[in-house]
Amino acid sequence: MKTSSAKAKGRKLQQWVRDLILRIHRTLEADDVRSTSMGAGGEDVLLSPKARSLVPVSIECKNIARFAGYALYDQAVANCPEGAEPIVVVKANHRVPLVMVDAEWFFNKIKQ
After folding, report:
1. What is the mean pLDDT of residues 49-72?
2. Which of 6, 17, 33, 40 lies deepest, with the highest CB count within 10 Å?
3. Is 0.85 topped by the overall pTM?
4. Model confidence pLDDT, tens digit, residues 76-99
5. Domain map of the chain by residue range?
């Protein structure tokens, strides 16, 4: 894949996250949540102080071709009873446990 194509893929994901946050938090304005340029250091989605008070997270976006976590998430979905939200908890040796959840569910949940 060409570098420009990879950057376009990453940019599209960052913009999706930005748009999702703005859709969920109607009190925020476009300048409160911004997608950074490709290759810029730091966070991928910049939040104003107002946005950070509503969405207290630091966002790193990676749009990749394959990720083994999806097989794990598919298993969680298949085993999930109706009315529950599937999550996956993963842990590697000498690392902290991580949780995978649907992004829209997550951003809606932290709004509550």
Report:
1. 95
2. 33
3. yes
4. 999 999 999 999 999 999 999 999
5. 1-65, 66-112
Count CB-CB contacts under 10 A for residue 47: 21
pLDDT in tens, 22-44: 999 999 999 999 999 888 889 99
Encoding tokens for residue 1?
């894949």
Helix, strand or coil for residue 100? strand
Residue 34: how many other CB atoms lie within 10 Å: 16
**What is each CA distance from 34 to 6, 10, 25, 47, 49, in whole angstroms?**
20, 14, 14, 7, 12
**Contacts of residue 43, Cβ cutoff 8 Å, sequence gap at least 6:** 36, 58, 59, 60
Please give the Cα distance from 48 to 61 (Å, whole number): 18
DSSP for 69-98 reads HHHHHHHHHHHPPTTS---EEE--TTS--E
Q: Report how far residue 23's alpha carbon sits from residue 56's, in angstroms, rounded to the nearest whole number.
A: 16
